[in-house]
Structures are given as C-alpha cells and as structure tokens.
Amino acid sequence: MAENKDYKVIGTRPIRHDGVDKVTGRAIYGADFQITGLLHGRVLRSPHAHARILSIDTSRAEALPGVKGIVTGDDLPAAEDKMADLGEGAVSLKYLCDNILASDKALYRGHAIAAVAAISPHIAEEACQLIDVEYEVLTPVMEVRQAMEADAPLLHEGLKTSSLGETSEESSNVASHIQHKKGDIEKGFAEADIVIDREFVTGTVHQGYIEPHNATAHYNQDGQLTVWCSTQGAFTVREQLAEILQYPISKIKVVPLEIGGGFGGKINVYIKPVAALLAKKTGKPVKVLMNRADVFEGTGPTPASFITVKMGATKDGKITAAQTSMAFEAGAYPGSPVGAGAMCIFAPYNIDNVLIDGYDVVVNKPKSAPYRAPGATNAAFGSETVIDELAEELNIDALELRLMNGAKEGDHRADGPVYPRIGFIETLEAAKEHPHYSSENGKTHHGRGIASGFWFNIGLESSVTISVNPDGTINLVEGSTDIGGTRASIAMQAAEVLGIPAESVNPSVVDTNSIGYTAVTGGSRTTFATGYAAYEAAQDVKRQMIERAAKLWDVDEANVQFADGEFSSINGKEEQISFRDLSGRLSETGGPVVGRATVDPPGAGGAFATHVVDVAVDVETGKVEILRYTATQDAGKAIHPSYVEGQIQGGVVQGIGWALNEEYIYNEEGTMTNASFLDYRMPTCLDLPMIDAVIVEVPNPGHPYGVRGVGEVPIVPPPAAIANAIYDAVGVRMDELPMSPDRLLKAMGKI
Amino acid sequence: MQAFEYIDAKTVSEAVALLGEKGDKAGLLSGGTDLIVQAREGKKNLDWIIDIKSIPEVNELTFDSNSGLTLGAAVPCYQIYANDSICESFPGLVDATVIIGGTAIQGRAGIGGNLCNASPAADGIPPLIVLKATCVIAGPNGERELPVEEFCTAPGQTALEKGEMLISLKIPVPEKNSSSFYLRFIPRNEMDIAVVGAGASVVLDDSKQRIVSARIALAAVAPTPLFAEEASALLTDKEINDDIIEEAAQAAQSIARPISDMRGTAEQRTHLVGVLTRRALNGAIERVRDAA
Fold first, then answer.
1. Apex CA A501: angle with CA A497 and CA A504, to 5°?
2. Chain B contacts of A623, Cβ < 8 Å?
3. CB contact, 8 Å: A750 with chain B?
4. Regarding beta strands A566-569 and A462-468, do their DSSP bridges make them parallel or antiparallel, or are they unpaired?
C-alpha cells in the first residue's frame, strides 16, 4: 500500500506548529485556565493505606467562611454492580466511582475521601483539615506475592478470581489469571541443552509528567457540563464523566487544553468528576489542581511485579522453549497491564514452545494507570536478561543469539497474531553495524549490555476535517491531544497529499463538540491513526479540488490530474492551476471545500527496538554511570525524524530512570516516603549522555506512508540492557529494579 | 500555606526584639529556600516572616590574613564561590556552595541559612566544622560565640535561645600546607540530598608526606552533622599512607548512627562513611600537594 518514496514533506523537519507558543510561555495549560466566578477545589485524601471509613463529618468545614460546597462519595450516583462502557471494554462502575471518591473503604494512602470548593485555594485547603473522618485502620497489603497468599487481608470482600474463563468460589486479591500457550512447553525444554530459570522483581514507578492533573468544570443553566482540562483524550474523559456521573454524554463537552506530559497517566480521570460534582453543588465553575504529592499518591503509577522467566536453548543457539509467570500489582482496583506484558514478553523471538501465565493482583497502592508500553518493560527486564545469560552460557554473542532467533514476517506470537512485515532483524543489524557496537569497552568496571523490546501499537478510531482557506492553506481539525509533536506529524501527512508545505497547515486540537470521535493519544497510535485520517481527509479535499478544476475548465474530472501541488488538464485543453490559486477560486466554483475522514485502521504494525549501552560502575558506592547509549528502532516511516528521535530519547531516559533509581518507597504503614521530585529520583540531564537514536525504516504495510507508532517501545529495553551492562562491568546479575546503589552494593557483597 | 506578615528588619537589635516578641510564630528570612518551602508545606506555621537581608552585619563577607573569614549569615552561596581568595583558602567550603541547589538557588541560599535549618544532611555544615568555624550569635543579652559543631542539637533544632539569631560565621586563617575538601554521595548527579556527606581538612608538614593535624566531619549519619573527633585525632602527626587513611575512615564509621529512610539504608550509609572519609582526606591531601 506504501506510496512512492519520493516525498516532499514527509521525512523533513519543519518547526512544530505549537512550538512558538510553548517556548514563549503563551500556550494555555490546564492550570492556566481562568473564568469569571471561579471557585477553587481541594481534595482530602486518606492518610491510611487500608482502612474502613466509618463516618465523615463535614460540619466544621462547612462552617468555615469562604467554603461554598463539600462533596463525598455519597454525592456520586449509586454505582451498585453496574458495568461502565468506556469504549475499550467494560469495567465495574463501582470500582470506577470508588477511585474518584471512596465509599466504604480507603484502599491506598492518598485515596480521595472528600472535596471542598471555596473562594480561595487556601481556604479550601484549610477546610479539608476540618473534615472529620473516622477510620478503622486495616492491615495494608503492599506487595504482590503477599497479596496472593491465601491468608492475605482482602481489599475487596467480593472480588473473585477470573481464571481462564472460570470464576473462583472464594474471594481473593487475584482479580484474574490469563494464559497464552504455543507448542508444547515440556517438549521444548526437553529439546534444550541448557535451561536458565530466574526470578525478577520490579518496583512501582510513576510516569513523572511535569504538569500535575487539573480540571475546571462548569454547569450552565440548562445543564450543559463543560470541563476544561489537560488530558490524553478528550473523548475518553467525556465517556468516563458520563459513566461516573451517570449523565448524558451529549450534555458533556470536554475542552482539551495543552498538556504537560502524560505518558499514559492522563487517560484515567481523577479530579475531573470531582470538579464536576463541586460545580454542580455550588452552581459555580470550580477548578481543582493537584500538587506533586497528590500526583504520586493519588494517581496511577505503573505497577511493581514479580516475574519468573525460564528459557531453554540448544547448543547451537536455537531457543526451544520460553516460559513465564508474571504477577502484576493492579493497585487498589483490578486492571494492571499484565495482559499487555504477556503479549510482549517473548514477542521479538520466534520460539516454538511458549507458556505465559499472567496474574492481575490488587494491593493497597494507587490504581495502576498506563505508562508507555505498559507491562512490556517489566516483562523485558526478565526475558532480556535471561537471554543475555543464555548467550553467555552458550558462548554466543548476545546480539547474534537474538539474530538467530529473531521474529520475522509470517512468524506468530504466543498470544496469536501472525506478524506482517516487521523490522526486528533490521534493528539488530543496525545496532551491529553502529560504531558503538564495535568500539573499545575494556576499562575496569566498565561494561556493555544490549537488549531488545517489542510493543504491539494500536490503531483505533480517529476523525479529521480539513477546510481549504482562500490563500491556499488548510485548517486541519483533529481530536488527538498533542503530547509529543503530533500536530506536526499529522499536518505533514495532509500536506504531503496536497502538495503544500507543512507550514501551510493550521492544525487545531478541538473539543468534543467540534470533531468526530477520536480515541486517546496513547498506544503509539496518533501519528499512525490520526495521521491516516488526515491522509484520507486530504484525499477527500483533493477529490473535491479536482472537481473544482474540472468545473473551472469545463472538462471531465477524469481529465484533471494533480501532482506536485498543481492541477492540470490532460487530454485536450492546456490548463494548469496551483492548489493555492484554485483555493482562491472556490466561491466561483461552488463554495467552500471541506474534506473529512474517519478511520479505524487495523494494521498498526508492531514496533521493535534494540539498545546498546555502556556503563561505568563505582564499585565503592554502587553508583552506575551511563557512558554511552545507542537505540535503534523501526519507525516504519519517520514522518518528522526529529520528533521520532525525541520519542526514542525520551523513552530511553524514562527507562534509565526505571532501571537505576525510580521507585515508590513505602514505610510499614503503606505511606510513600518519597512523594516528591526531590526523592523520587528521575534522571536529570546531568545523569545522561546524548542518546544516539538510530531510525530504521521498514514500512508498515498497514499505513499509506508506512508509519509505525514510535512512542512506547523505546522504554522497553533500557532496564534489561543496563542490567546486562552491569553484569559485564562487575559480574553480578541484578534481578531487582531499580538497580539502585544500595542494591548493587549488596549484590556485590560490599554491604 | 497560611497568610503571614512580612517585616523588613533594618538592624540586629530590631530583628532580635521582634524575635523575642513573636517567639515561635516568627521565622527569619534570608534566602528563603528552606523557610518558604516549609511554610508552604505546612511544616512551619508562621504568622510573621522577618527579612534580615537589610541588616548590614549579616551581609558581611570579608577575608584578611589576620582575622580570617567573616561570613555573614545571609551571604548567598554564589558570593562565596565568586570570591577568588575564598576559593583558594577554603576550597572545602566552596565544594559545598557549588552543590547546594542549582545556579538559581545558589543566588539566594547561603551557608548561614543552611546551618540554621539544622538538617542532618546539610552540605554546608561539615566544611564549617573542619574549618573550625565559630558562630557569632546576637540575642537579648548581647553577642556570644559558639563552635559550629555545637550549634545543631537535633534535626531542625539549634542552640539558639529565644530571641537569638545567627549574625555571622568566623573562620580562622588557614595554616600553612593546609587544605580542605567536601563531598557527598547522591544517586544522581544533581537534585538530591546527601545520602552521606564527608568533609576533611588537613595540615601537612613541609615534606607533604606527614599529616600534622586533620579534622573530619560527617553529614546524614546522625541527628546532627558530626565532628569525627577520634578519627581526626588518629591522624595527628602521622605519615600519609593507605593504612592510616583506612584507620581514620573506620574510626569515622564507628561514630555513624544512621537511619534507613527513602534516601538510603543504614548499612549503605555506614559503608559510605568509610568510602567518603577516605575520598575527602585524600582530596584534601591532594589539594595541599597540588598547591604551588
């Protein structure tokens, strides 16, 4: 399906359309939003990780001058046992509502209990302290293996395990058990000359977006609810609000403002329904903002996990069997990304015999939320370090072993899908050919590691409309919020079709009343799917413009051709007109031209990456320094190479943070003790070398320009690559994330 | 954050009188990089904030070869590391000023405030201890002086009595063949609070092969920064070799009584005291030897 490779716009690096407003501080983010009569909301959060709520008395807070309204879980519609449809599968409405404002139990430290609207944020904060909540404190369950024990305290008395289609009799913290099977695992291990069997633990980590959650809500007199917020998807916010508030979806308008990072963490709603409840109660617009501690304690991290990986190979390097059991912490309510992890774990390899078991387990931590390739990084930490160990035992170069077993077109994953044309092998070859791979790396306590990763990417629905301006520019209207340069990458696909420069496109991200349904910016889908919609909408414009040219010249449409931004007449008349000039003549040829398209493309195509990293280990302190980092990745076709490189670099940096220092540190009461950017140690620019991003282009047959999503897979290999490099440097295999200095000192036997 | 009154004090006596009058409900503001954060987080509930930056004495920064260094309580870090003669004479102090916060913070935050904040992990305090700094304190009964190692009494607590304030720090002129060094361990290269900090000063003989005397101080391994007195004394009149450095490091480890928290574990901290004490001593010795 891929078109000609001689692109005019695609593959170039124009300045992003939203760039100037962002670098000059003019862009309006959620917290910047102002409206007349605004009240300020503040949420009271549970100080306990696990407690029964016996009573909530708001009378002292209500009496505080300046307080205009207080809401608790009682203000949410009774959820009972209804299921909520959020477009991507049904979820329990009770769980959904309870996570917004707790009803019977507080299930994590930071769980929202009540909220106040007042004339100033300070009064709202003071009023929160005057709300008297009586708790019966229960034993918290803070770790997945502990939660799975038969006698573990239960978070949800009614939660049964759904296991391979059956539901358990007894209540449990295990919400579900999934399994994927391929071949005969016993036979596979029997064929192996060598088998490695290891256990891995990964910590709880946060997306760490810079902008905290925010929402301003207002009901007008006829019941129309408007919510201004930063989100990864205005339409999913509308769906979640409609379900949580049990309010007609057509009476809700969500206006997406600029977003300061999301990485998956700004898909679930938290304070948006709270702002709406407070707005309803007070009759005024209410703005609710989180602070950093609220973000850490009250919003979705990606979960800690316990993973076993067992792999076998023959002496000549054929991997014959791979088995894993992955237990993921869902947080307070079911829904960990174990399913996605199970799809990704052995996906880069063509292995005949595979058995994958996954467990979704509730614990007393915030409900997990998506985070960049959810589940895949946890999984790859296990599988990619075991492969490194296999390579060592077999005395085969770790990259060669991957090449020997790498998945190709026609191979099928353990969970079912058969690969179309994919570019895993090409990422390995690019890594092998890179000067980094053959450079010297022999200093004492320096090491090199490699690891690969997979993310399946998604398609889903997107809508785009394009209207043609009289000066030959176009206005492109889309519903995909722009978290990583997608205004540019979408605009460029339309520009390519119409033969105009990227700068001649004015992209707008609009509210839910102003564009057709568009799924979230997530799953690495936006440049792929909304870009696809832009391509189709531009094709619609092109068709209509051909009609206009035909009308102008009084020829048959079939006799008008369009190339390089010029319409020309063939078969007879010598006529030619540029897209720009024809745009100025729309009134005389029938009026405005508006193109439209909605898509739900099936062929997202998988993304693969291979990373090479050099580290230096200070054996006295256990500190790991990243000396050099090269990331190769199949982007299908890089629409805007700079932003693809930016995505790769960003993903690597988050992966490095996850590998070395980031984690939720809890005390015995289940309180996170490092809920600040000071002590939740994300890497800073001083902790990183320049990340060398190498784009490999194996066009995706499922997209007109060959695009594959690029945003997520770069976070997958880093922890495993770094673990492998640490082993190369100091000879210890790290099996727990983060590989922080104290853990490395312990592993080296220094403490 | 609760509302407060802001008062711009012009003299020491005015500030001291206000402190006596308002008691615990008043806080002194110089750089504000701790005070304002603590007020915002509700860790301090203040009705009055008394700005001392208009008081001449707390802004003094003078160094002469007779009386030594006078470092006013409100002098920000950047003025210290921008001063060539201070960099030359007190490199261990400068080591701390360049790692407290980033450039913007260093424009506001100072060593005096770092001391008064009395964090066990304060980077500014071990260098003061190894440089034998003395605190000049003003109060309702006039001025008094106190060795800096006696200033901090518990996390966030100091020897300041009601109505008292720190005016300046006095550091004696460094002896011949001497130097100082401070370093900390942090898991990242910036943005972190010390997991452990160690400062050392040494005086060498003319051959630069023997230690005449040394001082070692530690941060983040006890409720207050510590002067490692025994470890320091071990080095008096000793030839420099790995064994004696190791002996001092072990003696320093023996006084550490660290806790485990989100920044590090107790065993990690005790281990790091040894590593950092060695590195601080060797760093200070190298500086003496490198000096012309």
1. 100
2. 185, 187
3. yes
4. unpaired
Q: Per residue in B33-82, pLDDT tens?
A: 999 999 988 899 999 999 999 999 999 999 998 999 999 999 999 999 99
List CB contacts (< 8 A) between A681 and chain B.
187-188, 191-192
Q: In terms of domains, do B135 and B201 share one?
A: no
How many separate domains does chain B show? 3
Residue of chain A with shortest Cα separation from B196: A621
All structural domains of chain A with their residue ranges: 19-27+459-599, 35-138+210-261+266-298, 177-199+304-396+403-417, 420-457+605-751
Nearest to A382, CA basis, from A5, A702, A142, A737:
A737
Domain that holds residue B16: 5-51
pLDDT in tens, A198-223: 999 999 999 999 999 999 999 999 99
Query: Considering only alpha carbons, which residue of chain B is nearest residue A125?
Result: B1
Residue among A656, A681, A722 with most chain B CBs within 10 A, to mutate: A681
Q: Kindly tell me if the per-residue pLDDT of A558 is higher than 80.
A: yes
- Does B267 contact chain A (CB < 8 Å)? yes
| pTM tops 0.95, yes or no | yes
In chain A, what is the greatest distance between 2 CA atoms, to the nearest angstrom? 88
Q: What is the rounded average pLDDT of the residues A614-625? A: 98
Contacts B271 to A, Cβ<8 Å: 745, 750-751
A19-27+459-599: which CATH architecture?
Answer: 2-Layer Sandwich (3.30)
pLDDT recorded at residue A442: 85
B43–chain A Cβ distance below 8 A for any pair = no
Flag whether residue B265 sits within 8 Å of chain A, measured between CB atoms.
Answer: yes
Residues of B in contact with A683 (CB under 8 A): 188
Burial of A194 (0-12, 13-18, 19+ CB in 10 A): middle
CATH assignment of A420-457+605-751, among 3.10.20.740, 3.30.70.1070, 3.30.365.10, 3.40.1190.10: 3.30.365.10
Amino acid at A653: V
Angle at A230 between CA A225 and CA A232, to 5 degrees: 105
Burial bucket for residue A616 (CB in 10 Å: 0-12, 13-18, 19+): middle
Residue from A661, A742, A748, A750 to probe the interface with B (highest B Cβ count within 10 Å): A742
- The reply to whether domains A35-138+210-261+266-298 and A177-199+304-396+403-417 share a CATH topology is no
Mean pLDDT of chain A: 96
Q: A679 vs B193: CB contact, 8 Å cut-off?
A: yes
Please check whether residue B188 touches A, CB under 8 A. Answer: yes
| DSSP code for B44 | S
The reply to whether B242 touches chain A by the CB within 8 Å rule is no
Q: How far apart are CA A661 and CA B166, in angstroms?
A: 38
Question: Are residues B160 and B188 located together in one domain of the fold?
Answer: no
The residue to which tokens 């709520």 are assigned = A53
CA distances from B265 to A206, A742, B195 (A): 22, 7, 9
pLDDT at residue A566 is higher than 60: yes
In the listed set B129, B154, B171, which residue is the last one of a domain according to the structure?
B171
The domain that holds B263 is classified in CATH as 3.30.390.50
CB pairs under 8 A between A and B: 58
CA-CA distance, A322 to A310, in Å (whole number)?
Answer: 6
What pLDDT, in 10s, does the model give residues A74-127?
A: 999 877 777 877 765 677 889 999 999 999 999 999 999 999 999 999 999 999
Instruction: Encode pLDDT of A133-180 as tens digits.
Output: 999 999 999 999 999 999 999 999 999 999 998 999 999 999 999 999
The ipTM (two decimal places) reads 0.95
pLDDT digits (tens, 9 = 90+) for A386-416: 999 999 999 999 999 999 999 999 999 999 9
Into which CATH architecture does domain A35-138+210-261+266-298 fall? Alpha-Beta Complex (3.90)
Residues of B in contact with A122 (CB under 8 A): 1-3
Beta-carbon separation of B271 and A684 below 8 A: no
* CA-based nearest residue in chain B for residue A661: B187
User: Is A633 in contact with A609 (CB distance < 8 Å)?
Assistant: yes
What's the average model confidence in pLDDT over A296-305?
A: 97
Is the CB of B261 inside 8 Å of chain A's CB atoms? yes
Please give the pLDDT value at position A342.
98
Nearest chain B residue to A124 by CA distance is: B1
Task: Give yes or no for residue B197 having a pLDDT over 80.
Answer: yes
* Span A536-547, average pLDDT: 98
